[in-house]
Design goal:
- This protein is of the alpha+beta class and 192 residues long.
- It contains four helices and eight strands, in the order αβββαββββααβ.
- Strands 1-2-3-4-5-6-7-8 form an eight-stranded antiparallel β-barrel.
- A hairpin with a 2-residue loop joins strand 2 and strand 3.
Length: 192
């Protein structure tokens, strides 16, 4: 009898979760985000404002996020001391289970630096995961972005996750979840 309960419980959970995940065939998202950071000049806590546009079709998800980076933040990660826009264009999956919304995506990032003519935007890669709550036409959430300078760097980390050598796998996990490289944020989203 106990052997029958586990498969029955799994089937019941899937029967409840799968229709909820596919409930809304398509949905447009517009929102704003705030990413906390410490200003290297003053040491004060400040926020980076971002803009978000997303589109979900069943469980498939695409988004564009633009973060307006101040000069002090850009100089901490590059050779430039000018304000910039970090654009993230991602694709992945989004699941809606009741009021809980979860997403996982990867894509390209572009850093556009102001006031420096002739600079070609640098192209990198990123991985983004998010979790939030949806209240009919609006929602709040939190996310983590792991930006990479190149696609090769991201590919190396992902490939290392599947290595047969435990030391290489551990190094990949440490690289992906290095808190000094993760970009946390909070968002307010409107659904249409």
């Amino acid at each position: 009898m106990k052997k029958l309960l586990v498969p029955l419980a799994v089937f019941l959970l899937l029967a409840l979760a799968v229709p909820a995940a596919f409930a809304a065939p398509s949905q447009l998202e517009l929102g704003m985000s705030w990413t906390p950071y410490t200003d290297i000049n003053s040491g004060a806590l400040d926020y980076i404002t971002g803009f978000h546009v997303g589109y979900a079709w069943y469980i498939f998800y695409g988004s564009w996020d633009a973060l307006a980076l101040p000069a002090s933040y850009v100089s901490n990660y590059s050779v430039y001391n000018e304000p910039a826009f970090l654009n993230l264009v991602d694709g992945g999956i989004r699941l809606v289970l009741g009021p809980v919304v979860g997403s996982a995506a990867f894509g390209t990032n572009f850093l556009h630096v102001y006031n420096i003519p002739g600079i070609i935007p640098s192209v990198g890669a990123n991985v983004k995961v998010g979790l939030g709550l949806k209240f009919r036409w609006w929602g709040v959430g939190a996310y983590l972005i792991r930006p990479y300078a190149t696609w090769d760097e991201m590919g190396s980390d992902v490939a290392s996750l599947f290595s047969s050598d435990g030391t290489i796998r551990t190094a990949a996990v440490d690289s992906i979840f290095d808190w000094s490289k993760l970009v946390p944020g909070f968002n307010l989203t409107f659904y249409f």
